[in-house]
Every structure is written in C-alpha cells, then in structure tokens.
Amino acid sequence: MFGLNRARKTAAVIAAGAAAAATALLGAPTAVAAPQPIVGGSTTTTTSYPFMMQITDASQNQFCGGTLVSSTKVVTAAHCMVGETTSSVRVVGGRTYLNGTNGTVSRVSKIWINPGYTDATNGDDVAVLTLSTAMSYTPASYVSSSQTSVYAAGTTARILGWGTTSENGSSSNQLRTATVPIVSDSSCASSYGSDFVQSDMVCAGYTSGGVDTCQGDSGGPLLIGGVLAGITSWGEGCAEAGYPGVYTRLTTFSSLVTAQVNS
Ligand code: ARG
After folding, report:
1. Of 23, 81, 116, 231, which shows the fewest CB atoms inside 10 Å?
2. pTM
3. Annotated catalytic residue: which of 79, 124, 166, 195?
4. SS3 102
5. 164 vs 248: CA distance, rounded Å
6. Looking at ligand 1, which atom is closest to the CA of residue 205?
7. How far apart are CA 236 and CA 244, in angstroms?
8. CB-based burial of residue 194 (10 Å sphere; 0-12 exposed, 13-18 middle, 19+ buried)?
9. pLDDT digits (tens, 9 = 90+) for 58-100
C-alpha cells in the first residue's frame, strides 16, 4: 500500500493556509521529501487558458480545478465532489489569482458524479458540473472515445493548476502550468501495482520526478495537443522520482461526459 494522496478537498484547507491540516490530510508516510515544484513549470493566466476554472466553496476558496467544455458544463474529478452539494460549490472562470475577485462566479445547478466512482485509486474519477450562469470563456475540446492513441508513451502533456508547489507546501496564488511526458501503462503499473487501473487512468511525469501536479490541482486538465485528455486524480506524494502523477483516462469516459454535456 502506498501513502497515496487521494485526499481531495484537502486543498481547500491548504488554500486556507492551514499547514497542520496539510500534514494531516496527506497521511503520507513519506518522511522528509525535499521541496519539489509541482507544476515545476511557470506561472500563466486564465487569459492564456480561458477554459481553466477554479472550483471553490461558497466563500470562493479554491479546492480543485475544472475544465470548461461548453458554456455551462465543467469537467472535474469525482473525488473533488465527494460530500459537496449544489449549494456548497462555485465555479469561477477568468480568475488567474486565488485572491482575485474578478472573473465570473457561477453557482452549480447539477453535480453528476460517475456512478462507478468509489475512490480515486479505483478509477472512475470524473464528474461533470452544470453551471447556473453561462461562462463567456472559450471552452476546451476533449478527446473522443476512439482517440486512445493520444496516450502514446513520451507524448508531451500540459498540466495546469493552483495546487501546492511542493508536497507539503502551500497553494500557488497564480495559476501555474508545466509539461510532462506521458508514461507507459506498464511503467505506471510498476510504480503503483494494482492501484493503477489501466482502463481508467493514465500516468504522466519524468522518471526523475521534479514536475507534477499536487494537492489542489485535482480536477484540473491534462491537455494533449491542447485537447482535454486527462483529469488530475492522484499520486504518491508529488513529483517524487518513480511515482508519476495519475490522471483520469478521459477516452474511457468521453461518451459519459458527452451525455452530460448534452443533457
Ligand atoms: N489528489 C490531489 C488533489 O486532490 C491531486 C494529487 C495529484 N498528485 C500527483 N502526485 N500528481 O488535488
């Protein structure tokens, strides 16, 4: 068993600045990991990635990411929505900074959680939110179920989020992005054993670690060729050598997502 960070809304706590809670939620046995940049990449803006949504609580404290796929539909992780209700969640578009007050804030009129979802390490980690207020930002397109070849090992993928910039660190006030290579399924299975469910997950990261998503990035996009192909889901620690980030394999759930987008 790994000390997997399948924690979810934990990030809300981190965003609120509770370092102690961060330790509690990670529950990782990983004693002392050197500070490792998650999105070891660089700061960016929602102007550059207009489909990048903050998923927040009612007080607009961000705890997960999401991807706008139509004017009123947002794809995120199922594990982000556990325990949430339509009144507890907001989606914020066009806001690059966590402490910003700009952009569009929408309430959520429906939360669809993949009915198969139990735990991120069992797969099925996808949810679709229906917005009460349409977003005027350009949505992302997402993979169709037949596009399984996008996950060829070594393919460059882009990750985005406001999550913690080190394993036990604090969230980034500004949106960040990085690129990571897709990892082969066999290699990911070697890292994670039976927790890696090949049909439902895809891994990305460098063998040596150093660049990864982390707590608070969950629900956000993994883009391949600019198209939504994965959802930030889980990993052992963050950016650790030998433990790539694990993302929802969106081709598997594309039809389910489309049914929600069209509903
Ligand atoms: N579960 C985390 C969240 O809720 C995301 C963890 C991603 N971890 C990783 N090593 N890529 O924000």
Report:
1. 23
2. 0.88
3. 79
4. coil
5. 20
6. 11
7. 8
8. exposed
9. 999 999 999 999 999 999 999 999 999 999 999 999 999 999 9
What does the chain come to in residues?
A: 263
Domains belonging to the chain, first-starting first, are: 4-31+51-139+253-261 (2.40.10.10), 148-251 (2.40.10.10)
CA atoms within 13 A on the CB side of 128: 21
Report in angstroms the alpha-carbon separations of 222 from 109, 149, 161.
Answer: 25, 15, 10
CA separation for the pair 66, 217 (Å, rounded): 9
The CA 216 to ligand 1 mean position distance, Å, reads 7
Q: Which residues contact 56 (CB under 8 A, 6 or more apart)?
A: 62, 63, 89, 90, 91, 92
Query: 93: closest CA among 51, 56, 59?
Result: 51
Torsion over CA: 243, 6, 170, 178 (sign): positive
Q: What is the pLDDT of residue 40?
A: 76
Distance between CA 262 and CA 73 in Å, rounded?
9
Ligand 1 pocket test target in 2, 218, 236 with most atoms within 8 Å of CB = 218
Output the average pLDDT for the chain. Answer: 88
The CA distances from residue 142 to 160, 197, 228, in Å, are 15, 21, 4
Residue 244 alpha carbon to ligand 1 centre in Å: 10
Ligand 1 proximity of 162 Cβ (cutoff 6 Å)? no
Query: Is 214 near ligand 1, meaning CB less than 6 Å away?
Result: yes
The 10s digit of each residue's pLDDT in 163-210 is: 999 888 889 999 999 999 999 999 999 999 999 999 999 999 999 999
Which atom in ligand 1 lies closest to the alpha carbon of residue 120?
1
